[in-house]
Specification:
alpha/beta; Carbamate kinase; nine-stranded mixed β-sheet; two-stranded antiparallel sheet; 37% helix; globular
């Protein structure tokens, strides 16, 4: 009998909120995601979320078109705030109190990020959404997820993707790519696997923070992951 994790950090890409649209936020997706998160919370698991902003704006894309990288990254951080608010609205409509904590001060729409306050919210049964990345340019939301997971003492980072785990190569381009059930962080770095950026991977490695990569597009997979069932690929020390 598997045991649910006590506290998890769920990393969502901004693209996960698009649904079948080319950009933006699909309310049907946020509603479905919120319903599943509410079911997960009934397991007694404390849920924190970091969501990206790629469905609205990417700093790297802005830099590639000639924009200052720092400016682009700040715009990307603001995009994550928009996604966080949309997700908060969807979850609270399911009857679960939710708090958005932002690394960039904007008190009218989100609380400032304070680790102890985030932990207190989790202990009181609230879903916590971390917005605005780390609050600094040149860092991805993957790094923000690793940092926040360490700060709140999460048991694991769960990276929800559109594939069912980590492969030896891109399964779309290489038919011989094999799915890995588990892998170490050093192997991820040595093989250059695009699991998370190297800063995030190194942070997880140094703090012995396990990472689970799984497919979130399959209904019920978040519940399976949080309840400790074998799913996706686990990355650990």
């Amino acid at each position: 009998m598997t045991k649910p994790f006590k506290r998890v950090l769920l990393k969502l890409s901004g693209e996960a909120l698009m649904g079948k649209h080319p950009y933006g936020i699909d309310p049907a997706v946020t509603k479905s995601l919120a319903e599943e998160l509410v079911e997960v919370q009934k397991l007694g698991t404390e849920i924190a979320i970091v969501v990206g902003g790629g469905n609205i704006f990417r700093g790297l894309a802005g830099a590639a078109s000639g924009m200052d990288r720092g400016t682009g990254d700040y715009m990307g951080m603001l995009a994550t705030v928009m996604n966080s608010l949309a997700l908060q609205d969807a979850i609270e409509k399911q009857g679960v109190p939710t708090r958005v904590l932002s690394a960039i001060s904007m008190r009218q729409v989100a609380e400032p990020f304070i680790p102890r306050k985030a932990i207190r919210h989790l202990e009181r049964g609230r879903v916590v959404i971390f917005a605005a990345g780390t609050g600094n340019p040149f860092f991805t939301t993957d790094t923000a997820a690793a940092l926040r997971a360490v700060e709140i003492g999460a048991n694991i980072i769960m990276k929800a993707t559109k594939v069912d785990g980590i492969y030896t190569a891109d399964p779309v381009k290489d038919p011989n790519a094999k799915k890995l059930d588990s892998i170490t962080y050093m192997e991820v770095l040595e093989q250059g696997l695009k699991v998370m950026d190297s800063t995030a991977v190194s942070l997880c490695l140094e703090n012995r923070m396990p990472l689970l990569v799984f497919n979130m597009t399959v209904k019920g997979n978040i519940h399976k992951a949080v309840s400790g069932q074998t799913i996706g690929t686990i990355v650990k020390e």
